[in-house]
Amino acid sequence: MGATKEYFLKIQEENYNELSNDEKMYLNHLGLQVKQLPSNEDLEDENYKRIRNHRIKAWNNEQEYLFKKRN
Questions:
Q1: S-S: 27 plus which of 3, 7, 21, 32, CB 3.0-4.6 Å?
Q2: CA angle 32, 18, 40 (to 5 degrees)
């Protein structure tokens, strides 16, 4: 079983909004997931901090599980 790689495309919202629907569909078929980056205000929000910490812990647990499973 080979390892897969993930690639990220960072694009400003204005530029993304200027794309045609065909271009957005093409990116979707490539597996692009659109998500918003947190603002500075979001980074100071306690609820966001809790959600982010939970997501990071879940990702670390997933990586630990996959490492143990494969080794």
A1: 32
A2: 70
What is the DSSP code (8-state) at residue 68? H
Q: Which two tokens stand for residue 23?
A: 């271009």
Count the residues in the chain: 71
Q: Tell me, what DSSP letter sits at residue 39?
A: P
Q: Are 48 and 42 in contact (CB under 8 A)?
A: yes
Give the DSSP H or E segment for 30.
none
- Is pLDDT at 3 greater than 60 in this prediction? yes
Distance CA 16, CA 10 (A): 10
State how far the Cα of 24 lies from the Cα of 16, in Å rounded to an integer.
Answer: 8
- The pLDDT tens digits of the residues spanning 23-51 come to 989 988 888 877 788 889 999 999 999 99
Q: What is the pTM of this model?
A: 0.52
Residue given tokens 């909004």 in the structure block: 17
